[in-house]
Amino acid sequence: MSSSAFFNISAGAYIAALVIYVIYLVTRNKTVGVSATTMTIFGFVSQTIAFLIRWSNSYTFWMTSNPSSGLVEALLRAAPLRNLYESLIFFVWSLIMIHLIIEFKYKIRSLGAFVTPIAALALLFIDISGTSKEIQPLIPALQSNWLLFHVLLAFLGYAAFGVSFGAAAAYIVMVTESRKEKTYIFWSLIIGIFIIVLVAMGIDFMSLSADERKNLIQSHFLKSTFRSESGGVVAASVVISIAFLFALWQMGFGLKKVLASLSVTTTMLEEIEYKSIAIGFPLFTLGGLLMGAIWANSAWGKYWSWDPKETWSLITWFVYALYLHARFIGGWRGKRVAILSVIGFVAVIFTYLGVNLVLSGLHAYGSG
Amino acid sequence: MAEKDKKDLFETIWSMLASVQLAVAVFIVLALSSIIGTIVEQQAEPAKNLALLAKFFGDSAAPTVYNIFAKLGFMDMYRSWWFVSFLSLFSINLIVCSIDRFPKTWKLVNLPFKPLAEHVIKTLPVKKEIKFRTASSAAVKDEFLNSLKASRYHVLESTEDNATQLYCQKGKYSRLGVYVVHLSIILIFVGAIIGARFGFGGHLNLPEGQFSDVAYTSDGGEIPLGFTVKCNWYETSYYEGLDTPMEFQSELVVIENGREVLTKAIQVNDPLTYKGITFYQSSYGMLPNARGQFIITVTPSGGRPETLRLMFGDSFEIPGTGISGTIDDFSPALGSDRRTGNLTTYSENMVNPAVGVIFNMPGQDAFKGWIFKRYPQTGMLQGGHSIRFDDYWGAEYTGLQVSRDPGVWLIYIACIIMAIGLYVAFFMSHKKIWVHVAHESPGGKGPVRISLGGNTSRNKFAFEKEIDHIFTRASQAVEARQAKK
């Protein structure tokens, strides 16, 4: 079987797991919970196989154009972490891995209902953003031994931040006493905007031809809804979005009871939210910032040039540094730090997608 | 009185500079202001940012907004006085708070490590208790000692009033990890300052076959190199059958006092360094109106290849064949138009260079043929003779980033220190364990009672698991001994 066949199986399994995790939240039936976990593990194994097959294919691809490469060099160059498509897939893989570790370590199954949606959204994004899935030749700038370690560590960090975000989102719902609380309104807005942007991109995707889809983000982003030429469509999009945000704000509150009835404790969520950052922060600092700087120096002769990608990773780093200092030295707890975890992950998404897709810069090769 | 006021003022400023509130404020200000510089293009042509601002503020307001932004330093923000001031404040805050907090931490690290009273052990964050009916306290103590040692603790022992206590600690220096990270950030700042003060960053566009003994700054100033650098050739290689570049390469020669001292083919991730100055492959391009040389290798069937350097309009012969050709045309990127199928030049860069040759063959009319550099089979002629198009030389320049950064070694050291510091700060903890072993009744009688307690500076969850493991291992060993008896 091909890499993409295994990948499609895993994507299907993750989405099935998402549904089963949600059923588990509602029914609280242990068998349902076990099958959610089993489905996730099944998806994870399948994705691991897909990843290895792709690595092997890409190794063969590299060797055809560079027959004189040594084994180690070819393996490093062939690591499937080279473009948007491959890195998003690796993000999903890391996210699920960290989730499974936490699920087993903390015996907290319901976190799956908050983490699998992030994985599903990433998978959905891969499909509707129309990024190329082909194995592409490696452009000169990426032909470095740093590629594998830089991307690997940075993405493990991103995934840990993603898990922290899931825990923080669950935490905020659990501690909300009234819908009028600012934290909860903020929560509804962020989660709502995530969903709205993805749905809007889905509408773009459906209204475009296969050829146009390749440039969905660059040329057609939200053109079918919010940026439509017809004023009526824009107005309708805005009205529907506001209605959706309102509904989410009304209904999201209900999650609180569900979580409480599953004996998920706020302490546990806080611990996961913090622990994930404590793992993600050193990985991201080392892999994302430091290795990125060293690589930039060996490729361009400047370890730091304030290009948008570098700057946004620094902004992300500031947010998580703020989280750690506020928590350890300032003694902040609860909602205040949970919000920082949410903001941190929004910064992660912008560092990763926003910069490549919206802002231009030295890292523009990530947009293929 | 005045002395005291001065001291108070100093202390106020000090505690303000050391405060976490300042750290939080600086984090927020740096993060938010950094965003501006990622939206407004930095050091760009004014027209670019004017167009951007017009999108947000409208055409009429854009110039005014531009001027305000320019005054605020947004167009070169990361070098503006206020941004640099915030960075300085960040480092001052970092230094002052580290100095302020270090003595307390040092005290914690060097706290005399002593046995605790049993009732204190019972109040520790992680605790365990068990009784063994028939074992001797010496045997129980031995098993706990072994178990702690197996988990690589260096165990101390004290005996008092018929009770023995085992106590041990691990990773006390892990409390210093955060200071190591802070130190590394300061070293990065120092390295950056050294680089900015004593180094330079410039560029140099060097045509094939040309020399230079200077590089240029972004505003056009000359930077003397102290030696001469020459570009032998520049070459983009492509993946087979694709127009995706595989490598950008140029061969550079360093010439000092009229002697060639170093020759190296540089690539994107593989620069050349000489006397502290590094040349990076950063761009390339075609020279306008250049008259390059066509480097062509002709091989008669079964004969020896011969390489020729020809100019536009020159003629050549394949020795002993009677076939001759004239260089008549050149395209840097020849391809066929998708719709019409006609030959067309699809790029100004040498993506798919081809030379057009008018051939004269015995007994045939003259005809024109294209020979592609990337597709040698296009030069295979009837009768097994061949013409290979090696290069169109002298028409391209290599774009070099030239820099000298005497602070970069410090940055590398700081990176290593930070990696170590992060590991210590986030993945290690200061763990302490006390095990109190005593018989229930005085005089070495009755069951043996174990009270174990411990605390850790972080990661309580893992510590609990470790304690569980140590405790279970020891208890099982004691029970096994009892069973043997």
Protein architecture, described:
The complex is a heterodimer of chains A (368) and B (485). Chain A has helices spanning 3-27, 30-65, 71-78, 84-106, 112-128, 146-175, 182-207, 210-213, 216-220, 231-251, 255-261, 266-300, 308-328, 335-357. Chain A is 76% helix and 0% strand. With 368 residues, chain A is mainly α. Chain A has a domain at 3-176 and 253-276. The two termini of chain A are 26 Å apart. The model of chain A is unreliable at 361-368 (pLDDT under 50). Chain B is an alpha+beta fold and 485 residues long. Chain B has four domains: 2-84, no CATH class; 112-171 and 429-484, Double Stranded RNA Binding Domain, CATH 3.30.160; 181-289 and 397-419, no CATH class; 293-393, no CATH class. Helix content of chain B is 36%, strand content 35%. Chain B has helices spanning 2-18, 20-39, 46-57, 62-71, 81-109, 118-121, 137-150, 177-198, 408-427, 460-484; strands at residues 126-132, 155-160, 163-170, 200-207, 211-216, 222-238, 245-256, 259-266, 272-274, 277-286, 293-299, 306-310, 315-318, 323-331, 334-336, 343-345, 354-360, 367-372, 386-393, 396-404, 431-441, 445-456. In chain B, helix 3 (46-57) crosses helix 4, helix 7 (137-150) crosses helix 10 and helix 8 packs antiparallel against helix 9. The radius of gyration of chain B is 38 Å and the shape is elongated. Chains A and B meet through helix 12 and helix 13 of A and helix 2, strand 7, strand 10, strand 20 and helix 9 of B.
